[in-house]
Amino acid sequence: QKEVEQNSGPLSVPEGAIASLNCTYSDRGSQSFFWYRQYSGKSPELIMFIYSNGDKEDGRFTAQLNKASQYVSLLIRDSQPSDSATYLCAVNIPSGGSYIPTFGRGTSLIVHP
Amino acid sequence: NAGVTQTPKFQVLKTGQSMTLQCAQDMNHNSMYWYRQDPGMGLRLIYYSASEGTTDKGEVPNGYNVSRLNKREFSLRLESAAPSQTSVYFCASSRRRGQGNEKLFFGSGTQLSVL
Questions:
Q1: Nearest C-alpha of chain B: how many angstroms from A88?
Q2: Confidence class of residue A99 from pLDDT cuts 50, 70 and 90?
Q3: Is residue B113 less than 8 Å (CB to CB) from chain A?
Q4: pLDDT by residue (tens digit) across B18-63?
Q5: Considering CB atoms only, which of B98, B101, B102 is closest to A97?
Q6: Contact A66, A28 (CB under 8 A)
C-alpha cells in the first residue's frame, strides 16, 4: 500500500461548482501536508499547506486536515476551467530523524464550461 | 532568483548509454531531492540529500547514483540507461533539514527517453 493515497480521477466538475479532492496517508507521525498543482508538461507548484487539524482557507481554496482519520482534502470553490490540472497531495513522512516529502499519484481535475 | 535549475530539459539515450542530470539551487537550501514522474504514478523519490555531504535512497533508487557536489548542486547519474528509466525527472529543494513543515521548490524537469 502506497503511503499516500489519492483517487486518480479524472474528477469532472462544471464551471462554478465546488471541486473536492481527497488524500489519505498511512504514517501517523506525518507532520505537514501539501497540495501542489501541476499543469500538463509543467513542474508542480504549491497552492496550499496545512499543519494543524481543521480548515485553512486561501482565496477559493480550502485545505482540511483530520489527523485522527489520517485524511486531508482540498476544496476549490467557484471552479474555473483554468483550475483543470493534476493535483498532487504530498505528506512529510518521518524517516531516520528527517522528513521525506512523499507524494500521492495525483488527481486529475477537469472543469468544463 | 533562478531558484532550482535543471539541465538538460530533454534527452534521448540509447540503452546502455550513461548520462548525468544536473541540478543547482541558489536559495541556500539544505535539502535536495530527485523524483521521477511516470504517467499515473505521481512523483516517486529516487534519492535525496538531507544536507551537504549526505545522500540517501528513496523509493526507487535502482539504476541511479547521486552526488551532492556542494550545498548548491545535486546530480543524478544513470550509469547504463534502460528503457524503464524513460520518465520525467524533477529536482527539488527545501530549506531546512529535519523540519517537517518545509515545502519543496521544483526545477522545470528533464524529459528523458531511453530507446
A1: 7
A2: confident
A3: no
A4: 999 999 999 999 999 999 999 888 899 999 998 888 999 999 999 9
A5: B98
A6: no
| DSSP strands (E only) in A15-106 | 19-25, 32-38, 45-50, 54-58, 61-66, 71-76, 85-95, 98-103
Report the residue from A4, A49, A96 with minimal CB separation from B103. A49
What is the DSSP track for B60-115? --TTEEEEE-SSSBEEEEESS--GGG-EEEEEEEESSTT-TTPPPEE---EEEEE-
Beta partners for A16? none
> Across-strand partners of B23?
B6
Burial letters A80-108, b for 16+ CB under 10 A, else e? eeebbbbbbbbbbbeeeebbbbbbbbbbb
* Cell 486536515 found at: A65
Q: What is the pLDDT of residues A39-52, one digit of tens each?
A: 999 999 999 999 98
B98 has pLDDT over 60? no
